[in-house]
Specification:
The protein has about 500 residues and is an all-alpha fold. The protein contains 19 helices and no strands. The protein folds into three domains: about 190 residues, Growth Hormone, Chain: A; about 55 residues; about 220 residues, MFS general substrate transporter like domains (Growth Hormone, Chain: A). This is MFS transporter.
Length: about 500
Amino acid sequence: MTTVPTGRSRPTIALLVVLLAFVTVPMSISGAAVALPDIGEDLHAAGAPLQWVMNAYNLTFASFMLVAGSTADLVGRRRTFATGATVFAVGSLAAAVAPGIVLLDVARALSGIGAAGVFASGGAILATTFDGAARTRAFAALGSAAGLGLAAGPTLAGWLVGALGWRATFGLHAVLVVVALAGVGCVAESRAEQRPRLDVTGAVVFVAGLGLLVLGAVQGPDRGWASPGVLALLVVGVGLLGLFVVLQARSTAPVLDLTLVKNRRFLALCMVPVVSTFGFVTLLTYLPTYLVGASGFSPQRAGTVLLLMTAPVLLAPPLAGGLVNRGVSPRTLITLSLVMFAGGNAWLTVIGPSSSVAVIAGPLLTSGLGAGLSFGVGDGAAMSLVEPEQAGMATGFLNTLRIGSEAVVIAVYGAVLVSLIGTRVGSQELAARVAAGDLSGSDPGVLADGFTHALHLALYGTAAVCAIGAVVIGAALAPPRRAAAATPSVPQDAQLTTKAG
């Protein structure tokens, strides 16, 4: 036995507990963005302090994910999940009652630490609770839950802010996680049979390195990528992550077992959410701004249009899971999803200030379906390649790449947009306003054309990244030739569902 389950397990309730938490954590990312204007008005905050309501959460979420996953393997996945959910609930409640912007930012950072514990251990709980076809269905449901939270967050937050104020948004997050905590007793505890002491030095170096790297990426667009402060953050962050790799190679109880990274199929599956960030999350973040600013849509109408992209994320994961259980290769579905990202982004270059919803419906549906095909299936396939004793570590590493890439890619994408707009409007300050959706000025038509030109170039760039990702990841997911030759009766791609020996 490589993992030791203890306590009474009720798999269905355990699944519901994890799903509810996985709805809430992404909701706290996308929903908080909608509340920012009201937060700024109520707490008399603007600029960087206000933006840190989002940045503080994303920074700690990404930085603590891997450490939380490794800790879950050592002290118990249920215990880590419960602790993370409690910290998340406390942070959300503190955010709901924060009297000023500084305390609100601190509360959001605390919530991000709790979110890391929930995400890192939640996937590990499912990986050790379910097996075979049941595991595929569980991870498909997990993908739908995360997609639901991400998609429903802005809409639900908008209703709450309008009816009860911005504090109700964070209060709801706390309530939902407390409900999930009520069912934790039905989750069996599991941990690695051998439990060495946590590599504290490695953990501190990793958190510091990734934190500085993400912080540099977040600060880059505002302070300038060539500014001494930003360059120092990026260089030191990369240096600490390099030191972390050296430390892990020498550690007897590493935070990250480097044999995981050396497994090319596992690493390829961990890169799927990174490519998804380029192909899907960037659209989810910046397309509403274009629709409101350049196309003149109301925020409500822009949110409704985005349903064309987010609805498939809710519906496709169960379909993809069912196809896998019927013998369709995870490799085929994942490669197809990345190709759809490439096609959807390239196709969306038909968009213009006067484009109708019918014109952009096709590319939005294509990108959304691509996301839905890979959500859940990719995570489930990745977990099938690791031993149960490393479930928390593997989930932590997977989600570190997911959340870390979102923070970095979104910041870089925004900076590229501003730079491209600036080449057309002649001013970086004006370009920043246009990229934020403010096209008020002497010639809104020229500003809209500049925004459109920049968006088209960015879409072609992301399409190229996704196309390259589809080729590289598809090739990396091919089974070893010796394994394929030894099992001619089994479809080669289907071997993703078996553990790596």
